[in-house]
Amino acid sequence: MKQVITVNQRTIVELKYPLDLVDCAIIDFLTEYTHAGRPAKKLLENTVYYSVSWDEIVTNLPLIGIQTRNGIQKRLKGLCDLKILQMHPDNQQTASSFYAFGENYEKLFFIQAPAEVQKPADVYPFEDFWNDYDRKEGKKPAAAAIWAKLKPEIKLSIKANIKAYVDTFPPDRKFAQPYPTTFLNGRYWENDSFLNPVKNQRPVKDATPRIDISKNTAGPGSFA
Q: At what angle do helices 69-81 and 21-35 cross, to 10 degrees?
């Protein structure tokens, strides 16, 4: 049973569409019903049409007060007239009931931000992090999605320490540096290895060969 309605009512008012809450409930149900992959489909000229069952609508929307097929079809026709839905041409000749989402469908779920409202600048854009982190492997879109949810103060903290942290992974140890998605998912910026990268950096081994002078290797009868 459908629990909530997510259609943007403010958009409907602004566009002056003659829709009521019953229409909104039907639109919202069709959105979830089709995206769940349950109905049969038809493809016509690159448009996907979904089989719409009137009794599914009635069962899942008991409060709309419609119990008949004709009642549901009348509502669907009204949505087609507003180009929110699009009827398959074969519906007129057959008993099938296939509909696609029309050109005005997406308008019901998005609202354009007022021109005077500007999105604040990102304190540390993702592309800057991606380049500074210097391990361009793994799923970049997934890393970007995680980055978008971080608070500005966390991004600034990462920015302040990232260069020293990355420097602890020279080319011969780059394999040990976590992927960007691993770094973000694991909140590595909270680890001591990130906050104090110099302290935690492995010392460089002296490759100079050493001679053990404690042993006399000159042989019998030789002078030290």
A: 90
Q: What sign has the CA pseudo-torsion 152, 153, 158, 161?
A: positive
The CB-side HSE value for 142 (13 A sphere, CA atoms) comes to 11
Provide the CATH number for the domain formed by 9-108 in this structure: 1.10.10
Q: Which of 108, 157, 168, 106 is nearest to 134 (CA)?
A: 168
Sign of CA dihedral 81, 85, 88, 92: negative
CATH 1.10.10 domain locations along the chain: 9-108
Which three-class secondary structure state does DSSP give residue 47? strand
pLDDT tens for residues 206-215? Answer: 555 555 555 5
CA distance 114 to 9: 17
Count of other CB atoms within 10 angstroms of residue 125: 12
Predicted structure pTM score: 0.47
How many CB atoms neighbour CB 160 within 10 A? 12
Q: How far is CA 69 from the centre of its chain?
A: 38
In sequence order, what are the residues at sequence separation of 6 or more whose Cβ sits closer than 8 angstroms to the Cβ of residue 100? 47, 48, 49, 50, 85, 86, 88
Pairing of strands 85-87, 98-101: antiparallel
